[in-house]
Amino acid sequence: MAPWECQAGNPTHVAPSSREIVRTDSVSKDTAPEVGTDFVSKDSSPDVRTDAVSKDGWPVVRTDRVNKDCWTDVSTVSVSKDNCLPIADGGGLGSTADWTAPRAAHDQFSVLRKKFQVWVREWGLVSRLQKHVGISSTASLLTDDETTAVRSALCSFLQQQGFGCDVSVPPRQPFLLSLWRALAQLTGDIDSELPTILETGVPTGILQPVPCSAVWEPAVLTDADDADDLPDLVRHLEPVRHLEPWGSAESDPTLVRELLQKDLDAGYLVPLLGGEEEALRRWGANVAAGKFGLVVAPGRKPRLIGDGSVSGANGRCRIEEKVRHPGFESIQRFLSRMPRGTELVALSFDVRGAHKLVQVRPEEQGLSCFVLEGEWFHYTSCFFGCKWAAYWFSRVGAFLVRLLHRWIWLKHGLFL
């Protein structure tokens, strides 16, 4: 298979590599490149090897145990003989899930990765992670001191590369945006403006469309979505303020209050002590009040959602970009490229409350109001149930996918 090269600073450029890649079924440990050069298999990976980890109990996928006869979708995928078409991974148009060969010109994180690998062994993080997974622990994997050490090491590394950054966290932000900004500049990321947008607060796409970031292809907006309709939007939003939640929220008021308090404690939700009058004073006509709802599903934790459709907010959200996520077909295509008998360690993780980690511009937070038992609240962040939440965390996730590809620097597949 002819590997790709993604030129640094131009993530959308893909071209065949001029270097010969050693076959993974014939490489030996004596001939494997050192860490920091092109990897060719797990034998050229860092010291913490995937085969060693899998023997300790991680789930392993073997391609010779998968019934490829049932992969009906794969046969319909048009790919070149060299399998050079990208596989959707959630990282955008210039990204691919298939990193069975290096797709960046250089291993920019080699020095820092070696330092972290030492800590992984010294801190016993592999066994610690397995214990966390085994008991479904909600505690942080790293101690406070370990977290501080990792942050400081990353900051020092970036400063040595000539980037001014620090480990500060802006108010009401969960991200180290100064480090994110430096990482985007170091890797030449296509969405280098994202950290600044996150710091000032993201737009909802209601007062004006969210412009295309070039991470995905532009979306075709209808005439009804045109920004010239803004006066109609204001007149439409003003009366749509619901004062009661959905019946699902009224059915268990104690649970709803408990979940509501969690959002208040986290700073995602803020009370409007002056009620509707205060909301109108702060945001004028740009006030919309949706309805709270309660979702209780077997095997899942109960979730408080906010219905942004009944207030008219979701219908007026305009995003000039069409997000594309990987599907089951993406995983099928990736596995179909693996030689028969290949062992793959499977690792999956979820970001708790992902949508609420993204802060909204203060001048647009009035579009995220809710009323419960006569009390008014508004979200300062995105929330579950608003249209713009999915877009913005998809964009955050895409940035992390592109960054993780470069950080892992192992033969791997990665999907958002």
What does this structure look like?
This protein is α+β, with helices and mostly antiparallel strands and 416 residues long. Helices cover 33% and strands 10% of the residues. The protein is built from 14 helices and 11 strands. It has a 5-stranded mixed beta sheet with strand order 5-10-9-6-7. A two-stranded antiparallel ribbon has the order 1-2. It has a two-stranded antiparallel sheet with strand order 3-8. Strand 1 and strand 2 form a beta hairpin. It is globular. The two termini are 24 Å apart.
Explain the layout of strands and helices.
Blueprint: E1 4-6, E2 14-16, H1 50-55, E3 60-62, H2 72-75, E4 98-99, H3 110-123, H4 125-134, H5 144-160, H6 177-187, H7 194-200, H8 230-237, H9 247-250, H10 253-266, E5 269-272, H11 275-283, E6 289-295, E7 303-307, H12 313-316, H13 328-336, E8 343-345, E9 369-372, E10 375-379, H14 387-408, E11 412-413
Parallel strand pairs: 6-9
Antiparallel strand pairs: 1-2, 3-8, 4-11, 5-10, 6-7, 9-10
Helix pairs in contact: 6-7
pLDDT under 50 segments (min length 5)?
1-58, 65-82, 224-239
Q: Tell me the Rg in angstroms.
A: 24 Å
Structural class: alpha+beta
Average residue-wise pLDDT? 80
**Tell me about the biggest sheet?**
5 strands, mixed
What's a quick, concise take on this entry?
The chain has about 425 residues and is of the alpha+beta class. It is built from 14 helices and eleven strands. The protein has a five-stranded mixed β-sheet. It has a two-stranded antiparallel ribbon with strand order 1-2.
